[in-house]
Design brief:
alpha+beta; about 15% strand; ADF-H domain-containing protein; actin filament binding; ADF-H/Gelsolin-like_dom_sf
Length: about 240
């Protein structure tokens, strides 16, 4: 909205060029519910949010647009119990698919009594963050790595598809490609370019910008789309063409 973009412009004037700020680093910090809504949006500026364990009064810990790695680096406090939601995209353009996972972080330095009290909020916090494909609980930063999260998301989506009677396999080249690190990086670059103004960064300075444009040009090839639809292992299952 206009207020958010105005605040982002203010932040851009105060920070080093092309440094993407997290919510906690912004002088005009967005409200917790606003940050959660951005993560829920399929291409919102923030793709992760961490909340304090208070379901009756939503309180922001931090949020950002740099996905799992940024969250690991800037937000997983050792002395906090936190809950949150992370959006991960795979692929670009019409082939992009978004998935969300719930985070339950239990810092390794949290006192026993505090840990027990705050862990009791897990059910209520899950209800606030629903829906999501899977849940990740961790008490060590190494428990939340990008490869592990991608693997867990892929497994959850395949299992969910099988439960609904969808014909998907757990192994196969195309399902691997759909949830590959490369597909994730392409999606992240695409959304970071589209949200560059919000963060006050130069979209052309985002790593891989030219590659992302090339991928988007190729994705509208009709033969390739039909091939993907026919493949039972591919997440794309319908298309409408204009002639």
């Amino acid at each position: 909205d206009k207020v958010s973009f105005h605040n982002a412009a203010i932040e851009a004037a105060k920070k080093p060029e092309n440094v993407r700020l997290t919510a906690a680093e912004m002088s005009h910090q967005p409200a917790a519910d606003r940050c959660l809504a951005m993560v829920r949006d399929i291409k919102g500026p923030f793709n992760w949010v961490l909340l304090k364990p208070n379901p009756t009064k939503l309180t922001l810990h931090n949020a950002g647009g740099g996905s799992v790695e940024e969250m690991r680096e800037k937000a997983l406090a050792a002395d906090e119990v936190l809950y949150g939601l992370v959006r991960m995209g795979f692929g670009t353009g019409r082939f992009r698919r978004n998935y969300w996972f719930f985070v339950h972080w239990i810092g390794p330095e949290v006192a026993v009594v505090k840990r027990g009290r705050h862990n009791a909020a897990v059910g209520a916090m899950q209800a606030i963050c629903n829906p999501f494909a899977c849940s990740v609980t961790a008490n060590d930063i190494d428990d939340i790595t990008l490869p592990d999260v991608i693997a867990k998301l892929k497994s959850s989506v395949v299992v969910e598809g099988a439960a609904k009677g969808e014909r998907r396999k757990t192994h196969g080249e195309n399902i691997q490609d759909a949830f590959s690190l490369e597909a994730f990086q392409q999606a992240l670059r695409e959304e970071q370019q589209e949200n560059a103004e919000f963060f006050g960064v130069d979209p052309d300075a985002i790593d891989g910008a030219e590659d992302a444009e090339e991928v988007e040009e190729e994705e509208f090839d009709m033969a390739a789309i039909l091939q993907k639809i026919k493949n039972e292992q591919d997440p794309l299952n319908w298309a409408i063409f204009n002639f």
